[in-house]
Amino acid sequence: MSDRLERLLAAAVPKVCPAAVALIAAHGTVTAAAAVGELVRYADAVPTTGSDAVPGAPGTLAADRPPARRDSVFDLASVSKLCTTAAVLSLTEEGLLDLDEPVRSWLPGADPRITLRRLLTHTAGLTPTRRIDLELPQAGPDERMAAMLTTPVTGPVGGPYLYSDVGMVMAGRIAELAASAPLDVLVRARITDVLGLGGTGYRPVGGGGPAERVAATEFRPERPGPGCVRGEVHDETAHALGGVAGHAGLFAPADDLLAFGEALRLGGGAMLSSSSVAEMTRDQGAEGAAFRHGLGVRIGDPGIVGPLSGAYGHSGFTGTSLVVDPARGLTVVLLTNAVHPVRGRPGMRELRCAVAAEALRHVA
Question: What is the percent of the chain where pLDDT is above 90?
C-alpha cells in the first residue's frame, strides 16, 4: 500500500509543498511509508503580484535540490505543543505541578484565574500570538520571555476556546521553573531519551546537527545567511525566544514522531502513565471550536483527521500533522514544508485529510 501513499503525495508535490514524508502504522506496524519531493527546492521567493510577478513560480529553483527521504528532518511547528504538554503532565505525576493551581504561584503577577489546564485547553483568555521580536527588536531571548509572561488577559477566562501560542509559551516556562531545567533539556530527559527519539530536538543546526537532512522553510531575507530558513525554527516568536519555546521549535523525522504517537496510543509507555494519557486525550469541555479539545491535543479536528472520527492529534503551520486513532489502532504522520518558500499555499488541509483517508484502508 506504500505505492498508493506515494502517489497521493506525488499529486501534491510541489504544488502544495516541495517535500512530503508520510507514515501509516496499524497496530504498531508501519503499513505504508512514502517520501516525495525536495528538501530545498527554492533559493528565494519571487513576487506573486505586481509588475514583477512570475505566475506559478513561488521562487527561483535552487541549484542543489536534495531529495526528501524517510529520515529527513522537518520543523514540527505547533506539533511541538504535544511534547510541551507531555512534559507538563510528567511533572504533575511527580507532584511538581498541579493542573488546577493558579499559575501565579510560578509567574508572579499573572491573572489568578489562569491555570495550566486553561493554558493547555486554550481557554485562558490570552491573545493568539504576540510578535515579541517586533515589540523588542534589540532585546535578547530572556528579556523577550519575561515580556511574554506578562501578556495580559484580553478575553473571557474559562472559555470559549481561543487558540493561543502565548498560553503554550507560558506552559513551557512553568515546566522549566518546576523542573529547574530549560525546556529543551526537560523534553530530552522526559520524552525523547526515554522513547529513543534520537533525531528529535530543538535547534538542529545550532545544536550541532546536520543541516543536510533538514527541510527548508520560508524565504526570510531578514534572517542571517543566504536563501531560505533551514535548521532554524520557522516561527517568528519561537525564533525570537532563542529557538526553544512551549508552542514551537521542535524538529523531527517521521519515524520519531510516529514513535511518540504510538506511545500515546498505547497509554504512555515509558513517557507517561496511562492515567495521564487518558486525561490528556479526554474532552475537557472547551466550547467554541470546530473540534473537541483535550490537554494540548485536538480531538476530531476536521482539518487533520479526515474520516478518522474520534482520532486526536495536532497540526503545525509548516505543514505537519500527527493523528492518533486508538479505536482503530492507527497512527498517522505527515511531515511537509508547505511554507517553502512562501506561506499561504492552498491544498494542505486536503492533503492531510487524504492521508488520513488512506490510513483508513489499513484497518484490518
Answer: 90
